[in-house]
Design goal:
Elements lengths: L15 E2 L2 E2 L22 H12 L10 H18 L7 H13 L22 H26 L8 H4 L13
Antiparallel strand pairs: 1-2
Helix pairs in contact: 1-2, 2-4, 3-4
C-alpha cells in the first residue's frame, strides 16, 4: 500500500524555495505566507494533520512534488511536537510548550541538522533562506494552534489516539 501524498503537488504559480512551495495558509499568524482565498476550506496544514497518522506507518515515501516536501516537513514537526506532550499535560501548558518549540530553532531543509536534507534541493541565497525560515516558522505556529485543538478536542486531556503516535516516526526520522 503506498503512502498518502499531498494534493498540493501540482500547485501552479506558487514560489518554491528549497523544494518547498510557499502556499497560502488559512491563518491569522503574521508572516510571509500568501493570503488564502476566502473560498478555501482547508490548506496544507489541515492536510498534514489529516495525513499524519496514516503516513506515520510508512518507512518509505516517494516524493512526487514540492507539496510532498512541505507535507514531510509538517509531519516531522507534528511528530516532534507530540513528543513534547505527556498524558498529564494540560491544554494551556501544551500551548505554551509547543509555541516555544515553534518559534525557537526553526530548522530549514537546507540545514545540515535537518534529518532528510538530502531529499531537498539547495537554497539559492541568504535572502531566500531567511524567507523560507520565516514561512516555516509561520507554518509551525499555525500547526501548533491546530494540533493543540485536535489533541485536546474532548476537553478532558490529551487524546490517547494522538499520544499513541509519540513512538511512531515518519520514515524512522526525528526532527531535532
Amino acid at each position: 500500500m503506498p503512502a498518502y501524498h499531498s494534493s498540493y503537488n501540482s500547485a501552479d504559480g506558487v514560489r518554491v524555495i528549497n523544494g518547498i512551495p510557499l502556499l497560502p495558509l488559512l491563518t491569522k499568524t503574521r508572516g510571509p505566507a500568501p493570503y488564502a482565498d476566502p473560498s478555501m476550506t482547508s490548506d496544507a496544514i489541515d492536510e498534514a494533520l489529516e495525513l499524519f497518522r496514516p503516513n506515520s506507518f510508512f518507512k518509505n515515501f516517494e516524493i512526487k512534488g514540492s507539496g510532498d516536501r512541505l507535507l514531510i516537513y509538517i509531519i516531522l514537526f507534528i511528530s516532534q511536537s507530540l513528543n513534547k506532550l505527556r498524558a498529564t499535560t494540560t491544554q494551556a501548558e501544551a500551548t505554551k510548550v509547543l509555541y516555544t518549540l515553534a518559534v525557537t530553532n526553526v530548522v530549514i531543509p537546507a540545514d545540515a541538522s535537518f534529518p532528510l536534507s538530502s531529499m531537498y534541493p539547495s537554497v539559492g541565497d541568504r535572502m531566500e533562506s531567511d524567507l523560507l525560515r520565516q514561512y516555516l516558522q509561520q507554518v509551525r505556529q499555525e500547526t501548533v494552534q491546530r494540533l493543540v485543538a485536535a489533541v485536546y478536542a474532548d476537553g478532558a486531556g490529551p487524546s490517547k489516539w494522538w499520544l499513541c503516535f509519540q513512538k511512531r516516526h515518519f520514515m524512522g526520522k526525528v526532527m531535532s
